Amino acid sequence: MATPRAAIRYAKSLFSLAEEQGSIDAMEQDVRTLHATIEAAEDLELMLQSPVIKADAKEKILVKIFEGHISDLSLGFVKLLVRKGRESILPAIMLESQGLIRSKRNIGVAEVKTAVPMDDELRSRVAAALTKLHDGEVELQETVEPSLLGGFQLLMDNQMIDASIKRELELLRRHITDHDYEPEF
Description:
- The chain is built from 8 helices and 4 strands, in the order ααααααβαβββα.
- The protein is an alpha+beta fold.
- The protein has 2 domains: 5-103, N-terminal domain of the delta subunit of the F1F0-ATP synthase (Peroxidase, domain 1), CATH 1.10.520; 106-178.
- A 4-stranded mixed sheet has the order 2-1-3-4.
- It is elongated.
C-alpha cells in the first residue's frame, strides 16, 4: 500500500520541529515506541481507524497510553493528529519519520530473505559487506522464507540480488521449455 501524501508531510513537520529543538534522538525513540505499540496492539490500530469513536475519546486513550512514555513534543503531535482527524495515518507517519531519521544519519536498510535463519557469524559478515557497499551504517531486516529452498534474496536501495535456489530452478525451467529439443532417432 502506498504511503499517503499527508503522512509524508506530517512526518517532515515532526522531523523539522524535532530538529529545531535539537531533540532528534528523543523523537527517534518516541517514533519507535509509538510504532511498536500500535503494531503490537491490533485493538489500538482499529481504534485509530474507527470513524465511530469520537476524537476526544481517542485523544484520552492515546494520552493515557503514551503519557510519560514519550516526550511532550511527540505527545502534542499525536494530540494534534487526533484534533485534525489524521490519527488513522499515524502508523504511516511513524514509518516515514523513521525513514527521515535514517536518511539524516546515513543509515541504509537492507532486507535479507533466507530459507533458514542466519547464524551470528553470517549475519555479521553480511552486515560488514553491506556497510562497505553503502558507505555507512546498515540496518538488516531478516525474513525467513522457506520457499526459497536455499540461498538468499537481498533488497537494498531499490536493487535486488536474487541468489536463491528457487530462482535458479526457475531459470533452468525456462531454459528447458524455451528451447526446442528434438532428440535424434
